[in-house]
């Protein structure tokens, strides 16, 4: 097919055309986990079917012309047969994953902060509940009693000490209980623009799970460089579900150390709250066996977060507001590509930290209680 783009002479051919995007690294340093050939094939199939799949996202703009001669939008409608619609949806999922992760590339620090120093700084900066905390000039978090909130930059240093490399400008902070419950929650805001929620009716949980597993496999190479054991995805602890009335998305994924059936299974319980200009993500990290007990805590934190007037999803103005180039499915896929296994790395960190403090075998709850409990107030 002839390409009439004015810069046609500079256009790389085949898979080489999208390698710069596919090779972009997420803030965890992980290589994107989907196959370049598969993405290109789906994009071409969708183009032949007359489906609009292209995006004008800023991370893509330098190489827009490389994907297809059909310059169009990801969120545009799809017509044609059911097979064409399925192909188009898969293509949009993969392209959205590329958009989300490519836009989140930032450098990792040379070495992690000293663990004990990171915890000590976090304790000094901690905001104890009950307290109302402004979040990203978008919302207010009503932190309940018996909880602490670690703000920036101490939150980033703490996560780096736990083995999570890089700096995430979206991170607002980390929530811990002051007791020994053994969970933590990260709070992030993504200024994505207004996210249309209509693709919640189209997504296929099996397709999302497959993409998540592929992303984790690619990520394992980076984990090995950091001296961490590889992870494998067991499956959904809770399949993705969207509540249109409250504009909340919830899903949970189970993981464990690869090849070790006897290892402790960890779970990331992810909750999202959509707003007019972007969304908050709140990621509850705990052990799978404790999810039933800790899940209400995650739900309570989500309920405790409320957008300011004028920033709510319902305040969207189609004439003036920016619309995101991806939908809800990309939020699930994006988290999978960026970083899984926060629990696993936290567990590895805690084991080392326990030796430093001569505490013997100790869990996240005990460490958090030591630093944020009432005796430290």
The name of the CATH topology of the largest domain is Protein Transport Mog1p, Chain A
Average pLDDT, rounded to a whole number, is 68
Question: What is the number of beta strands?
Answer: 11
Do you know the CATH architecture of the largest domain?
3-Layer(aba) Sandwich
Number of domains: 2
Order of helices and strands: HHHHEEEEHEEHEEEEHEHHH
* Major β-sheet profile: 8 strands, antiparallel
Low-pLDDT segments, ≥5 res: 1-79, 85-110, 335-363
Structural class determined from secondary elements: alpha+beta
Kindly provide the radius of gyration, computed on alpha-carbon positions and rounded to a whole number of angstroms. Answer: 21 Å
Any idea what the CATH superfamily of the largest domain is called?
Mog1/PsbP, alpha/beta/alpha sandwich
Strand content: 15-25%
How many angstroms separate the termini? Answer: 68 Å
What does this structure look like?
The chain has 377 residues and is of the alpha+beta class. The protein has two domains: 8-102, no CATH class; 109-377, Mog1/PsbP, alpha/beta/alpha sandwich (Protein Transport Mog1p, Chain A, 3-Layer(aba) Sandwich). Helices cover 34% and strands 20% of the residues. The protein is built from ten helices and eleven strands. The strands form two sheets. An eight-stranded antiparallel β-sheet has the order 1-4-5-6-10-9-8-7, sandwiched between helices. Strands 2-3-11 form a three-stranded antiparallel β-sheet. The chain starts with 18 loop residues before the first helix and ends in a 5-residue tail after the last helix. The model is unreliable at 1-79, 85-110 and 335-363 (pLDDT under 50).
């Amino acid at each position: 097919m002839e390409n009439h783009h004015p810069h046609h002479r500079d256009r790389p051919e085949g898979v080489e055309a999208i390698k710069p995007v596919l090779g972009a690294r997420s803030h965890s340093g992980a290589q994107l986990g989907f196959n370049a050939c598969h993405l290109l094939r789906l994009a071409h199939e969708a183009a032949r079917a007359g489906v609009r799949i292209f995006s004008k996202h800023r991370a893509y703009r330098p190489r827009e012309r490389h994907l297809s001669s059909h310059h169009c939008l990801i969120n545009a409608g799809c017509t044609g047969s059911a097979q064409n619609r399925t192909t188009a949806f898969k293509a949009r999922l993969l392209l959205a994953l590329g958009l989300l992760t490519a836009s989140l590339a930032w450098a990792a620090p040379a070495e992690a902060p000293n663990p004990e120093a990171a915890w000590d700084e976090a304790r000094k900066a901690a905001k104890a509940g009950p307290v109302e905390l402004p979040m990203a000039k978008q919302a207010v978090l009503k932190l309940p009693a018996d909880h602490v909130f670690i703000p920036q930059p101490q939150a980033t240093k703490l996560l780096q000490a736990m083995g999570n490399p890089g700096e995430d400008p979206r991170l607002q902070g980390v929530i811990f209980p002051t007791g020994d419950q053994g969970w933590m929650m990260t709070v992030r805001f993504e200024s994505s623009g207004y996210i249309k929620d209509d693709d919640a009716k189209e997504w296929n949980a099996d397709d999302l799970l497959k993409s998540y597993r592929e992303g984790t496999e690619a990520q394992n190479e980076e984990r090995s460089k950091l001296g961490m054991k590889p992870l494998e995805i067991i499956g959904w602890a809770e399949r993705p579900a969207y509540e249109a009335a409250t504009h909340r998305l919830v899903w949970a994924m189970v993981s464990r150390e690869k090849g070790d059936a006897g290892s402790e299974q960890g779970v990331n319980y992810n909750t999202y709250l959509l707003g007019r200009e972007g969304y908050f993500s709140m990621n509850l990290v705990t052990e799978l066996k404790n999810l039933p007990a800790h899940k209400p805590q995650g739900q309570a934190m989500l309920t405790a977060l409320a957008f300011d007037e004028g920033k709510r999803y319902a305040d969207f103005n189609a004439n003036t507001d920016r619309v995101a180039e991806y939908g809800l499915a990309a939020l699930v896929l994006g988290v999978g590509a960026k970083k899984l296994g926060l629990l696993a790395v936290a567990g590895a960190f805690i084991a080392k930290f326990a030796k430093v403090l001569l505490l013997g075998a100790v869990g996240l709850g005990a460490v958090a209680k030591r630093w944020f409990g009432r005796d430290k107030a």
